[in-house]
Amino acid sequence: VQLQASGGGLVQAGGSLRLACRASRRTISNNALGWFRQAPGKEREFVSSISWRGGDSYYAASVKGRFTISRDNAKNTMYLQMDSLRPEDTAVYYCAVARGSRSSSFPSDYNYWGQGTQVTVSS
Predict the structure, then answer these.
(1) Statement: residue 28 has pLDDT above 90
(2) Strand pairing of 67-72 and 77-82?
């Protein structure tokens, strides 16, 4: 599986961005998917995940109520709608495909990772 993340950029605090992650080479419709992020000098952290059918989704406490994860299995694509962005959301955002169908917040449960897309939120 190859993952291509897009949609990052520079936005002012309070603004919105929509990230997309498109998978190629094989279908990801049977796998849970996730978004993680890594800020400079910090460890990679969980942002959100979604189960294979999209029925279950989870969010880190820091983004809950502001971010929305979704997927379109027909397009082999996952999205992360980010609203009310804050400077502390600044990071490289990575999409990932889990080994199984259940949502997970653990990076070790994911075996395919995208290259990352930079999100910068100015104050």
Answers:
(1) no
(2) antiparallel
